[in-house]
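Obj.: predict assembly geometry.
Materials: sequence records (below).
Method: joint structure prediction, all chains together.
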Amino acid sequence: MGLAKGFGVTLRQMGKKKRVTVPYPEEKRAKPQRLHGRHVLNRYEDGMEKCIGCELCAGVCPAKCIYVRGGDNPPDNPVSPGERFGFTYEINYLRCIHCDLCVEACPTQAITETKLFEFSFANRQDAIYTKNELLVGDDGRAKRMPWEYWRGDEDDHTSAWMRATSSSGRSDYEGRVNWSGELGFGVRAPEDGQTVDSNIALAPTHATESHNGHNAKADH
Amino acid sequence: MTAVNEAKTTVTVTIDGKSIEARPGELLIKVAQDNGIYIPRFCWHERMKPVGMCRMCLVEVDGIRGFPPACTMPVSEAMVCHTDTDSVKAAQDGVLELLLINHPLDCPVCDRGGECPLQDTTLAFGPVESRFVEEKRHFEKPIAISDLVLLDRERCIQCARCTRFADEIAGDPLISFVDRGDHTQVLNFPDDPFSSYFSGNVVQICPVGALTAKPYRFKARPWDLATVETSCTTCAVHCRGAVQSSSNQIVRLLGVDSEPVNQGWLCDKGRFGYEHVHSAARVLTPRVGGREASWPQALDAAVAELKSAKNLHGGGAIAMIGGASGTNESAYAWARLTKGVIGTDNVDAQLGDGIAAEVVLGSDRAQISDLDNAAAIVLCAGDLKEELPVLFLRVKRAALELGVPLVDLSAAPHGLSKYVTHALGAAPGEQGLVAEQLASAIGGATPANETIAAATRSIGSREGNIVVILGRTSLAERDDTVVSAAAALGALPRVRFLSALRRSNVHGALEAGLAPGFLPGRVSLDSGRVHFTSNWGSVPAERGLGTEGILRACAEGKIHVLVLVGADPLADFPDRSLAKQALDTVGVVIAIDAFETPSNRRAKVFMPCTLWAEQGGTVTNLEGRVQRVSRKVSASGLALDDWRIASELAQRMGSDFDLETVDEITEEFSRVAPAWAGASTATIRNARDGVVLPFADHLGEVVFRRGGSSLDIEYSLSWEPIRADGDDVAVEASDVDETAEIDRTIATEDALTLFVWDRVVAPRSIPQRDAYALRVNVGRKLYDGGRIVAESPSLVGLKKAPTMLVSSADAARLGVLSGESVKATSSRGSITVELKAARGIAPGTASLGFSADGTGASELIDASVSVTDIRVETLR
Amino acid sequence: MSFTPENLARAQSVIAQYPDAHSAILPLAHIAQDQDGWLTTEAMAEIADLVGTTPADVQGVCSFYTMYKRRPCGKLVVSVCTNVTCLVVGGPEILEHLNDRYAADDDVFVEEVECLAACGNAPAMQVNYEYHEHLVPEMAAAIVDDYKSGVLQPRGVSGGLK
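Observations (raw structure tokens):
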């Protein structure tokens, strides 16, 4: 009985023009602006790493896929500002559920997420991203690995910049930009509806990708 | 307590509408806590006096203007208190906002972050946003206030927990508040570091990350840690602790608040000594003839030596020294192997630096908690602060806080000297004599002198037992002076003994029968013969030798195989030249150890064993309390537990123990050992504070754990006393496993009686000291040359070269300046040592630290003479 | 520097006045400061030894009181009030003037202090705890110079009469 009912839906939709699915991978949808994809480790505008090795991301991770160990900054050639830096940083993408809690937990906005989700591995070792893969390059952009399929500017907006309100949620700070500048991007522009403190110098606005629902074609 | 007082023992207070019965004078914060109402606090600590520093515990009390702090407010009849009104919350908000003004927000790189009371309290009770926008105060960070403790002054909230601990509990006020107002900071005096033996405790009780331990700093975040409850086995006190590891590496040991034992405190050697477990110097592969071998090869080689010695010369040609560093189970397995399989009674867990097993096993015992309400504490032991630091804290507290008179028989000044009530001024080697005088005075005879008379009066005026802390007073004297003191005092009706033997699980080893003339469970070889023959197959025919005798027999070529189980006679035996002669002469050495030592360097077979936190089981502390130790990290390399090595050897010797797990050994031990009758694995596991043996005598004291066998430590509470919950229900005999009853029946059938020492002492005479010589008192130091210190990177630097202390009169007589190096010569040998003039040393005597690495004092001591006299000459 | 024999004898007699030797820390620190001109670490260590406590304890007590100087303070301690009343009638100007004038002078130690309880005749300052009131900057400097040249006889740096 249930079977007939189920097929009924299929038969009714057959031939109708207004289709909601797309024939992935030939055709791909634009990703929402806040999609959670593969992580990046950000750097400050002067090239210093933002990660301080505090392990809060590892602590909050519900999938226990992050392994971090901090190290003491060498005084003559510091990796990050302050006492400590992220000496080891690993994310196991076979476990990661892209919940973004690590991004929420990060006190320095060191870890954020790009929109990349199309990547696969031939072995388990490759699935464990280390600092080598995660840290942004000298242009401030994600390093693109051969097994990752990047489309356009998916690393333009990593999701840190959406955390624009004060952590305690006090209304005075709502909608105000409250994060540090990033290598290659400077201080990110606010989202729609957010204001900017006059004392923060914003990076020149860059072309924002269209997210009005048109379907981007795959390049190959 | 009299009936009049009993009528007024409780008052009724109302806290947040809840009616609570409490003892008058109890602090409001404690009463609330005991009844499930948590009042936030930073400075108040249950084990210290209240100070009212942090103002976090403000409450409202009807009829009292303003907000009194709950930590300094004693409860009184009909008191009505509110902890959750809007005005209390506003007060808490204000206090927290104020405390946070100068507190940096570096939580992500702070060791306390994640287990921080200030974080937790701010989240639960604090304001949402700070109005403070000015610059916070800054200090150089971190500064080392000692070799082990770092201080970030920026993070300090001035709760005075550390300074109060140093002053009140440890008695080393080496840190204090400096400056005032917003410049207030905790500091040590310049060039005078906070080198307390208890400095690690201030790190544990600090409610912020201001004090951090160098060995743990940045090692892990609290949420990385996995925890098990265990006992520290660095000395024989067996403080309860929670050992924590991250990635299979031990990173921290926290003190657990066990009322009868350590009351939350640990000494630094115990707290940081875990590092030796991960030392790079560990031997992790068996060796045969100096070359690495497989376990079967090593075991076969060992068995071949044991068998051939036994067949050619009999079991008596084999001797074993050691077994005190492992668990009771390991000790039992080795006792069964040596006495039941090999058939030798030449077995000793002590290294000639303790006291006769007869005295320890056969005297009336006291518990540590008996110190608190003793009629008097008689000190007849070495320096407790150096040897058993947490017992020192308990004795200090009893003397200072609880007013128990301290009667001192020591010949040299020690850590407790300034708390002593009656110093009887015994000369080295003469403690026995003075003890006899004291005993006869207490017994009613005319006191020999005024100090003894005063001590007798103050003992006589108090109720309770006289607790005698009995240990080796000096390594430069034979133990007979202590034994005769024990004999004299033991004859008195109210006297109980607390053994001060210091080595790790030596009491467990002695109970397990690792002493000549004894079998497991405090029975002598003769009285246990029938019982153990039926259980083990055979027992040695006659009493064997102790360590001194074994070494002498080795030197004379009478012993062919010497088994060293975690023992290093060259380092620990007081008479080095005898130990050296023995090890040079003996045919074969079989070593079970974790480290290569001078004693086992030429071992024919070396079998690596696991260490603390790598092995589970039970251990027995100096009061006879059996507690569980737990395994936290996996065994390093190919190391095996001692008991497994014994059991494998037994099997190869043709006798299968049929013991596969630690619990099986515990069960067998409690089945066959009379003193253990009734103590099953389950009871020991579930008893909150362990069980004191013999079990039947202490049934009423056992408190069972609430909520299973493991201690669920919430890491956020590590700054408060960590406690295992328990049901304070006295256990009736009928509640205990029925096996207890059965076991006692077996014991009776075999006519087994627990050994009682007959207090017969051979007459002794102390040689006269010639006028030019100094009679030397040699004691252990906490940071000596032993393995734990040597292999722990954080502790190794704390070891100091031993100095010889003499009175200033003697220094002047010798024409030596304080701080100068001198040559000290005894009948045995001579050493060069720094000499210092010190207060409190009697003229004609000298005090010298034992370095426990085969150098120094052990070159001077002749184990066959009762005291050591030295001549001192300058090197100029 | 350690106590001179006379001062050691004085210290012993002070200690003898108290049932608990610990109570003698403050008077002993005054003796030490009057002797050395400031409270040296050696003095604090010696005081600790005399009263039977640790140097850290003595340091804690002494650092609470601003009249104990734990670094060299020359011969004259000039305390200028900048609290409310003095603030409105020129205390800060006096402080600034004296600070500038004696910046390189090791004998004169100028410090800013809270209320000296001389509001009635503000602005006020003390030179070695001797009051001088109704000041203007030049006048204050002249007073300090008079002390330096010996026209005025200063007290000890602890305020005790020399």
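Conclusions so far: The longest strand of chain C covers residues 76-81.
To do: check interface contacts against the pulldown list.
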